[in-house]
# Entry
Amino acid sequence: MNAPPGRLAGRVAVVTGGASGIGAATVRRLAADGASVVIADLQAEAARALAAELGGCCPIRADVTSEDDIAAAVDLAVSAFGRLDVMFGNAGIFGAYGSIAKSRMEDVDLTLAVNLRGVFAGMKHAARVMIPQRSGVILATTSPAAVIGGVGNHAYSAAKAGIVGLMRSVAAELRPHGIRVNAIMPGAIVSAMTAGMVTGDATALDRTAELLAAQTPAGRPGRPEDIAAAVSYLASDEAAFVTGQTLVVDGGYTAIGAESPYATGEYAEPGVFLEAGRRR
# Structure
C-alpha cells in the first residue's frame, strides 16, 4: 500500500549513514513524503550528490564515532530548517570478526563506537533539541543478531543488542516529553555493504539479491526501500501511539524458522495427537 502523500510535510530529519544503502533509500522516502533531510555520512561526496539530486536536503560529512560531528548534523538541521523532528541513527558497519579468543580489541572498540556509541550520541543530541519542542521521533537500526546467536559477529551482535536496550531506556525517559523512541530490525538487505560481505564484490547487487532470496523465508530479498517504508511510518503521526518498540522487517526470518511442519506433507489433513503417540 502506498504511503499517504505528504505524511511528513514540514518535518525535519537527520539520517546518519544517509548516503548509501538503507540510509539513502530512507532519505529518498522521507523527502518524497515531504520532509527536509540532513544527510549525514562519512561518504561526503555521495551525500552531496544525493542532496543535489533530491533538493530540499543538506549534506554534511559526519563520522558517527565523533560526537562533535553528530552534534554538527543536528545543529545543521536546526539552522537550515528551524527544528528537528526525526533522528534516524542508521550508520553502521559489520565490523570486527574472528574468534572471540583471538579478537583484536581495537577492532571491537571501533565496531562498538560506530554501531552503538554513535547511536547513543545521536539520541543525546536529538533529545537536547526535541525536549524543548516537546515533540520528536528518534529511531535506530538494530539487527536480528541482537536476538539470534550466530547471525552476526560478536561485536556487531553486542552492539545491536545494546541498541534495543538503549532504545527502551531512552523511550522511558523521553515519553513524558512527547518524544517517541523506536528501533527497526532489518533482515538481510540488498546493499553494497551486504554484497561486499556475501560475494566479496560491493557492486554485485543482483547476485546478492539472488543469494538472499534463496535464503529468505519470504522468497525474495529485503530491499532498502522496505526499511525506508518502516522509517516513514514510525516517523509519522500514524505511529503516534508506538514507542519503546522494535519493528522487525525481515520477511519472517526472526519469527518464522521454517515452513510449518504440522500443516504440510503428511500433516496437511486435520488430526490430533493423543496420549502415548496415538493419533486420531
The helical segments are 21-32, 44-54, 67-81, 105-133, 154-174, 192-199, 205-215, 224-235. The first helix runs from residue 21 to 32. The chain has one domain: 12-187+222-253.
